[in-house]
Amino acid sequence: MATRKLRLEELGEERLSPRDKGIPERAFGMTVTEFLATRPRLPEFWTPLVALDQSAIDNNVDVMSRWCSSRGLQLMPHGKTTMAPQLWQRQLDADSTGITLATMGQVRTARSFGLDSIMLANAVVDGRSLRYLAGELADPQFRFVCWADSVATIAAMEHGLRSVELPRPVDVCVELGAEGGRTGARSVAEALEVARLAAASDVLRLAGVGGYEGSLGHDRSEETLANVRRYLRQQLELHQALGGLYDDGDIFVTAGGSAYFDVVAEVYADAVAADPHTRWTLRSGAYITHDDGFYRRISPLDEGRPAGQAGAGQTGAGRLLPAMRGMARVVSHPEPGLSLLDGGKRDFPFDEGLPIPRRQAPDLQGPWTPLAGSSIPAMNDQHSYLVHSGRDLGLGSVVSLGLSHPCTTFDKWHYLPMTASQDSDLVVELVRTFF
């Protein structure tokens, strides 16, 4: 099992400074622990700002843990979503069996905090990363598995690993892709060829089948869902074909972004019931904060999705809640019905939908009132264009924003204040990111 407690103590000893975006001036020179002991309030922070909601995060972690457990699925959530070890710890505490990462640089960061169960949803082909990995595998508690999608990948790994002292073979899942998708062998036959080479290698160990169905669509149309199901059935076909090549060690079959994990559970269901020894593993990551945009529209567990559209077997699972929000201040009224906010692309995500105006207040302390009849049709680096009806918002007033796509929210912030709930302004934690 993964380390239950990461080494997070040093995060509390970091000193806050003017280099930390949004942090109140009175915090400069304090450690994070010292600052939090003063019970800071959100109105002290500077705009633009992104804040997290602890109650919603706790709900989401619990909902996803129970959802996976009830379906015989393990969860290794994608840590690149947040790159926040404090949030990884919440996921590990809720029975995640490890953390998925995307680059060897992220693996190195995670290892520095003591994480000892990692899936790299990517290949490792360069000599420097392979040398580092060989050194880390000297730790007998460290479980690591990566992916390979071609004969060339296997050759590159073997070349790099044979030039170093390797304590044990590197576990490798064969990645199956799909036409028009991302990485991955483009057919079961190609994947079988990769698997045979991995199984025959003296420096690699065949450890299962991996893949990512999320690149096959951005909606829940019947056509998209049919494509996802077809791809997942091919994964199962590949896994069955590899049966004679596996040894007695851990074997993974893994899929699952944050959009179609219900379809993964549906397609895997019979195989999970028939083969409890395989580690049937989801890697969904964005669920921890959910959002007000892309994932709200597509997730099978969104709180607003009608019961009949919630995907297969959702009854009683609970629902995901948006757990992040932006805040930006009105700095200009250049013309009637248009306000410019002091936060833009450098502060808020924009790749899967622009921020959604939700509420307004004279300042960060409220009182907050709904902001109806408004939208943000465009953003610059440091400005958002707020188009609204009715009277102009007061210069200096604050707008609370629903955000879309956690994966491009966290990477813009060194620290994100977390309040006890969206209705509380008490900051209970500063969540540190490592991008």
Automatic annotation (TrEMBL):
InterPro entries: Ala_racemase_N (IPR001608), D-amino_acid_metab_enzyme (IPR051466), D-ser_dehydrat-like_dom (IPR026956), D-ser_dehydrat-like_sf (IPR042208), PLP-binding_barrel (IPR029066). PANTHER family: D-SERINE DEAMINASE, ZGC:162816-RELATED. The keyword Amino-acid biosynthesis does not apply. This is D-serine dehydratase-like domain-containing protein. SMART domains: D-ser_dehydrat. The lineage of its organism: Bacteria, Bacillati, Actinomycetota, Actinomycetes, Micrococcales. Residues 323-420 form the D-serine dehydratase-like domain. The keyword Lyase applies. It comes from the Bacteria. Keywords: Lyase. Belongs to the DSD1 family. Pfam families: Ala_racemase_N (PF01168), D-ser_dehydrat (PF14031).
